[in-house]
Amino acid sequence: MKSILLKLFFFFFITSQIQSQELLPFVENYSKSNYQGDNQIWNVVQGKDNAMYFANNHYLLRYDGVIWEKYTLPNKTIIRSIMIEGDKIYSGSYKEFGYWYRREGKMHYVSITKKLRLFAEKDNEEIWKIFRYNGSLYFQSFNDVFIYDGKHIKKIKFPFLISYCFVVDKELFVASVDKGLFRMDGSRIANPKGWNILKNTVVHAIEKHKGKTYIFTQKRGIFIVEKSGLIPWNNPLNETLKVNGINVARFIKNNKLVIGTGNKGVYIYDFNSETYKNIDRNNVLMNNSVLCIGFDKENDLWLGLDNGIAHVEVNSPISIFYDNSGILGSVYSVATTNKGYLIASNHGVFEFDSGKFKMMPNTQGQAWNITKIENKYIIGHNDGTFCYENGSLVKTNNISGGWNLSKSSINNTCFQSTYSGILAYDDISKLSDYKTIKDISKPIKYVAQNKKNEIFAADNYRGLYRVVYSDDYQTKKVENITQQSKIQNDFGVKIFEFRNEILFLIDNSWFTYNSITNKLEENELFNTNFKNITDVVAIDENHFMVLQEGILYHIYAVENKFVWNIIQEKYYKGKLINDNLRIFKTQNHYLLNLDDGFISLQLKYENKQNTHVKIEAFNNGILLPDDSKIKYNTELRINVISGIYGASKPNLFYKINKSNDFVPISDGLIVLNNLSSGNHTIVVYKHDGANYDKVCNFDFKVAQPWYFSVWMILLYLLLVGAVLFFYYKWNKFRYMQKLELQAEEERHQRKILEMELKAENELNIQEYEKHILELELQTKSSEVAGKSLSIAKQSEMIENIQSILDSEKDFNKLKSEIKKAIKINEVNKHEWEIFETNLNQIHNEFIINLSKKFPNLTPKDIKLCVYLKMNLSSKEIAPLMNISFRGVELHRYRLRKKLNLTQEDNLSKFLLSL
Hints:
Elements: H1 2-17, E1 23-30, H2 32-35, E2 43-46, E3 52-56, E4 59-63, E5 68-71, E6 79-85, E7 88-93, E8 96-103, E9 106-111, E10 129-133, E11 136-140, E12 144-148, E13 153-157, E14 162-168, E15 171-176, E16 181-185, E17 188-190, E18 203-209, E19 212-217, E20 222-226, E21 229-232, H3 236-244, E22 246-252, E23 256-261, E24 266-270, E25 275-279, E26 290-295, E27 301-305, E28 308-313, E29 318-322, E30 331-336, E31 340-345, E32 348-353, E33 356-359, E34 367-373, E35 376-381, E36 384-389, E37 392-397, E38 404-407, E39 414-418, E40 421-425, E41 435-437, E42 444-451, E43 454-459, E44 464-469, E45 475-480, H4 481-484, E46 494-498, E47 501-506, E48 509-514, E49 519-522, H5 524-529, E50 533-538, E51 543-548, E52 551-558, E53 561-567, E54 583-586, E55 589-594, E56 597-602, E57 614-619, E58 622-624, E59 628-630, E60 636-641, E61 652-656, E62 663-664, E63 669-672, E64 678-687, E65 692-702, H6 710-807, H7 812-825, H8 829-842, H9 844-853, H10 859-869, H11 874-881, H12 885-898, H13 907-913
Parallel strand pairs: 59-65
Antiparallel strand pairs: 1-28, 1-29, 2-3, 3-4, 4-5, 6-7, 7-8, 8-9, 10-11, 11-12, 12-13, 14-15, 15-16, 16-17, 18-19, 19-20, 20-21, 22-23, 23-24, 24-25, 26-27, 27-28, 29-56, 30-31, 31-32, 32-33, 34-35, 35-36, 36-37, 38-39, 39-40, 40-41, 42-43, 43-44, 44-45, 46-47, 47-48, 48-49, 50-51, 51-52, ...
Helix pairs in contact: 6-7, 6-8, 6-11, 10-13, 11-12
């Protein structure tokens, strides 16, 4: 219950919020940050050079479609009015009027009143309007009119305060602030009969249209001049204008009236349809107070606002629906109905009727597509499929995500691509009766058919499938033909039906299906004419739209030839929904969805791009003529000016120095840096999507860098000469030094030779002494070995005798004598000391290393290690250490533990490795 109430609240909230939205002309807003000027724009006109000029308080603004320029008067006063005549731009300000002219890329001012005393000190006059009448220029303030015939100035002072003067049918009218409207004849003024109703009323405009004169007052609306006098304009809009206040009004072509108000923007009234459109801050205008209205040669409007400037393309073939509230959301599809529009957005389905939008019940959520078949509108929605007919909406099925609905080109069957596959409708009037194509249960984005029992389906992500089925929709075969055709990049396949032929746009290339080879083949016609295309949408049999490098082109096909019409990027920049471009054709127009609304374009729209393009090149702020020369390493700014501000503005590219690459010109400006010295050529081309046509060129030369100038080359020669001279002097000085060094070196060499001989003798002596020491060491080693062997054998003999004596127990006396002999032959203590000393000297280094690595070893352990290093057996070691054979083995076992050796490690090899 709670969720239902929330949905109802959301539905009524949206219904109440979205009101009075409508298709409006495209509007470009320019703020102070664009033109870097003041707030109010008091006057706007287009010059002979096609640039737009604005009276902007302290500045005269100039805009040529590329750059903004601003200029101030010498006395820094406020500019209230401007008027164009030929190459002159007349301006009026505080106690001053004169004209501007352009020379060398800059505006220059000439004062008409500088040396004339037209204004008294007490005067507080500002020139609010400039116009030509009877061959003279009129400069009008609130109290006076100054008539200038080119040589002399005549001043006429009025007895009352005036608002403006108006020229109508060769008659001059003067509008008083409180005395009414007067007809002026020379210096005489008279109030027309029956016009007393205008007393105490400020008149802001008088216009004549189709034989009728309209008088526009500030607060009392519009009056029409009749023979009997003035009658109010009989139109409901008149009451609205009274409330909002009229500031300015002008008639434009196509029988339309433009009225700028004080607090409700601008109204555009169409006398043919008797309807009006209001452009204000609620939709697209940046400010509601319109101070002036100007026109360009394309018959589009330029509005001077209280804060900013607006360019309104009332004569453009393109209209736009704006939703600045964000409630509508991103529009995915739009269709016209008898009363208005039906819109599918990511917020739901909306109906436009009688100037108001409302959300259709139970449609909240993502809606994808609207297809009109006969009088039915089939809507694909995230929650299923809906049918809109005669103002009512019915849900026909619950299959989620109806992306697209396409009609077969061979019969009346319709195919719907959904999140989960494909639905087939044999009778579109019975939407609840559908068949599901089996064996292809995946998200399908596009479906097309031009052969019985065969369809092509493009996966939402990647892959193109050919599905063959029976008459009762039983699937016979599903083939991935992009894989069969060995196409590597088959992401985002687009299906395009053109004159009963199905084309496939895959990775910027066009393909058709060959039923004989069962593979895709490149289509020569489309690949030749349509390169770098990322999206394509059909409009009808002979019209379609392509997206090429971010630019939309309307294509008109005549047999096998194609006419390209560019749709300027400014209408949709940043607003296209990728892979979801949808078009709805309605009579002579078609609608294209946008991220925040939709566009309406004329079907027979032909963009005749302007080819009269002018180049203005500036280097360091100086205008350059063709074939100019600029300094090296300086910036060149090239303004490519078409003089077109609306829909027919050309799409321009440029090449430099015969380059193969066409570079797009962004906002009409080319900035070149780091140019090499020499001659350069910039060629500007107009691009219609298919062809590049040359429109103009600019030649210039870049000077040699300063370090290659004549004076620098002379300096380089002088420097080289100086370097060679000093090099000669230096070489001569070095040669003399070299001779002295050679003599000194010879002396040193003799001394070195003597020292080397002396050192060699000393070295020989040291080697001799070393040899003697080595011999002594060898002798001691021999002695140690000999004595070791002698002692060992002696000890062994004694041991044998003792064993015999022990066995002969009957010969006690003999035993006593032999034992005495044994004692006599025992090794004395002195011999052992000599033996141990010589042993330590020979193995001194080994003993030191062993003691450092294993400080826990005892002297007896070290002695055993020395014997083992000498490769003596346990039997030979036993008498040397005066222990038994088993004692040696036990000692070796303990030594292995102290040395942290395992059973696999060889003790003798380990000691030899130290």
